[in-house]
């Protein structure tokens, strides 16, 4: 494309056009709903950080470097409106996880590839970006998985919430105790992606040979049938029989999770639910966690319990075993516990006790 063909559009104008294009692709099925949502959200964030009135073609690699740094230090906004936002770290460390930074960078790359084809820029500035992950806060984010004590505290609070549902005050058609408890239990026990959870329909849950299963529609059009632990299945049945019926306004006849207005729950609402349940956990066992952090928690504790790796892969919906390494966090005392129950040393322990 010749320079004279480039349209001198502002960052805000190109962001608006890009969001329209992404939504059109979503409606035709060319883009998955979750991917379209991420692209649209990230390009709006980019416009705010880069300066909406600037001409897109004027941005250089240095400008994009600055945007990536601003994003890395931007407070995490995945909290409920009532929760206090954490201020940016005084030492300049990132507020965004390494995974969020990498996702944002991928979104910018997709945006500028489209901008080049659309004639909004002469050159893709991503090719001149020099900022690397080590400059943005390290290659590995802080551990995401909850410890056993923290996970037990969260699950206990979710169970307590479910048990208080019958006696809870307020309008019956706005009570969400069963729903909130179910959300936390499903995230911690099954480890679905948050998009898989919010897309779930009531009809996706079925019984086979006395066991409750969840047919999860995952990435790449893949489906998997995951058995639900009995305590979680009991809460699911109670929610379907009571909680969901109270919230149902007939607007979303298939959706599993409904807001008190009767709409399908959105991805951003799930974090607010987790935060409300966390507020019920005793401070000594309370630690903030995201839906993705609960997915890490599921993987970490299943693998630490010596669950077959391929079984964990199928529960999480990964195509390849190698991906599990990214979902596995080290647990305190894990190596010591493993060596105490070493499978090869049982006979020797018996001999030691007999004095042999």
Which tags fit this structure?
13 helices, DNA polymerase, domain 1, mainly alpha, hpI Integrase, Chain A, 356 residues
Structure, explained:
The chain has 356 residues and is mainly α. It has 2 domains: 3-135, DNA polymerase, domain 1 (Orthogonal Bundle), CATH 1.10.150; 148-333, Intergrase catalytic core (hpI Integrase, Chain A, Orthogonal Bundle). Helices cover 49% and strands 4% of the residues. The chain has a 3-stranded antiparallel sheet with strand order 1-2-3. A hairpin with a 5-residue loop joins strand 2 and strand 3. The radius of gyration is 24 Å and the shape is globular. Mean pLDDT is 82; it is low at 80-92 and 134-142.
Q: Let me know the average pLDDT.
A: 82
| Helix share bin | 40-55%
Biggest sheet, spatial arrangement of strands: 1-2-3
Strand and helix order: HHHHHHHEEEHHHHHH
Distance between the termini: 84 Å
Number of strands: 3
Uncertain residue ranges: 80-92, 134-142
Brief digest:
With 356 residues, this protein is mainly α.
Task: Indicate the topology.
Layout: H1 11-28, H2 33-50, H3 61-72, H4 98-118, H5 148-164, H6 177-190, H7 194-199, E1 205-208, E2 211-217, E3 223-227, H8 230-247, H9 267-278, H10 291-304, H11 309-316, H12 334-340, H13 346-354
């Amino acid at each position: 494309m010749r320079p004279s063909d480039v349209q001198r559009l502002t960052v805000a104008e190109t962001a608006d056009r890009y969001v329209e294009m992404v939504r059109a692709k979503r409606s035709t099925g060319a883009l998955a709903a979750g991917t379209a949502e991420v692209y649209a959200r990230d390009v709006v964030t980019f416009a705010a950080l880069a300066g909406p009135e600037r001409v897109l073609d004027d941005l250089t690699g240095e400008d994009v470097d600055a945007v990536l740094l601003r994003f890395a230090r931007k407070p995490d906004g995945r909290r409920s409106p009532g929760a206090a936002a954490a201020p940016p770290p005084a030492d300049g460390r990132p507020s965004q996880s390494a995974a969020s930074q990498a996702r944002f960078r991928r979104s910018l790359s997709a945006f500028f590839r489209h901008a080049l084809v659309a004639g909004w820029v002469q050159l893709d500035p991503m090719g001149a970006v020099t900022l690397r992950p080590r400059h943005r806060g390290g290659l590995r984010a802080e551990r995401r998985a909850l410890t056993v004590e923290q996970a037990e505290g969260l699950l206990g609070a979710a169970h307590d919430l479910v048990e208080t549902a019958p006696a809870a005050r307020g309008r019956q058609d706005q009570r969400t105790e069963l729903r909130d408890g179910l959300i936390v239990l499903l995230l911690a026990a099954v480890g679905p992606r948050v998009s898989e959870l919010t897309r779930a329909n009531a009809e996706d849950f079925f019984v086979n040979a006395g066991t409750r299963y969840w047919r999860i529609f995952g990435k790449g059009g893949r489906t998997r049938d995951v058995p639900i632990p009995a305590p979680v299945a009991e809460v699911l049945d109670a929610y379907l029989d009571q909680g969901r019926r109270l919230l149902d306004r007939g607007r979303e006849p298939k959706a599993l999770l409904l807001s008190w207005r009767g709409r399908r729950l959105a991805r951003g609402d799930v974090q607010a639910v987790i935060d409300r349940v966390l507020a019920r956990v005793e401070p000594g066992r309370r630690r903030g966690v995201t839906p993705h952090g609960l997915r890490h928690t599921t993987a970490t504790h299943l693998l630490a319990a010596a669950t077959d790796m391929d079984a964990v892969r199928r529960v999480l919906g990964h195509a390849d075993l190698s991906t599990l390494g990214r979902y596995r966090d080290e647990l305190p005392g894990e190596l010591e516990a493993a060596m105490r129950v070493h499978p090869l040393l049982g006979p020797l322990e018996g001999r030691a006790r007999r004095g042999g």
